[in-house]
Amino acid sequence: MNKMIDYERLRRTLINDYGAQMIVFSGALGFADMRDVETADNDELLEYAKKNHIDLEDFYINYKGVSFGREILAQFQEWGVNDF
């Protein structure tokens, strides 16, 4: 099954991660990576996600076009909400 990925949500997550790395660890390197992610195409975003061990299942879009992480989906299912 071919799953669609919410690339803009992935981009925002990567930018936030690199921004945090810039502040905490690497300074200019984190900034450079953050800037690269801002202009990356979808294939490049997937490479950055792989490099940073990001689980893409958290970015899959369901059939109604909504992107939720697995934890949120599990909570909805626990509440008996399965139509989304």
Please give a structural write-up:
There is one protein chain. The radius of gyration is 15 Å and the shape is elongated. The protein has 84 residues and is mainly α. It has one domain. It has a two-stranded antiparallel sheet with strand order 1-2. It has 4 helices and 2 strands. The longest helix is centred in the N-terminal third of the chain and has 20 residues, at 7-26. It has helices spanning 7-26, 28-39, 42-51, 70-78; strands spanning 4-5, 60-61. 61% of the residues lie in helices and 5% in strands.
What is the topology?
Elements: E1 4-5, H1 7-26, H2 28-39, H3 42-51, E2 60-61, H4 70-78
Antiparallel strand pairs: 1-2
Helix pairs in contact: 1-2, 1-3
Specify the structural class: mainly alpha
Number of helices in the DSSP assignment? 4
As residue ranges, the low-confidence spans are: none
Spatially, the strands of the biggest sheet line up as 1-2
Beta-strand content: under 5%
Distance between the termini: 18 Å
Overall 3D geometry? elongated
The Cα radius of gyration reads: 15 Å
Q: What average pLDDT do the residues reach?
A: 78
Overall tally of domains: 1
Helix-strand pattern, N to C? EHHHEH
Label this structure with key terms.
mainly alpha; 2 strands; elongated; two-stranded antiparallel ribbon; 84 residues
